[in-house]
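Appendix B, Record 12. Input sequence as logged:
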Amino acid sequence: MKCGHRCFEIGGPWIDADPNCPFHGYEAQAKEKRAHTEESLINSKKEELFQLIHDAEDLYDIKNVLLELAELI
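Logged structural output:
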């Protein structure tokens, strides 16, 4: 990907990425890692809630699951 900082360009000034590049640099990598971690936590919580709904025995149990879900929003 050409980005103006010449990241990953053969013969460019960087072996891989300019640390200050807004697309490939340290901050961009940290942002991507945070987004991935948040997504993993959300997916884990969704799976837990789906299992609770599956295991619910009555409307009271489903109501409690839905209240938990509402707290996530």
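The CA atoms of residues 49 and 68 lie 8 Å apart.
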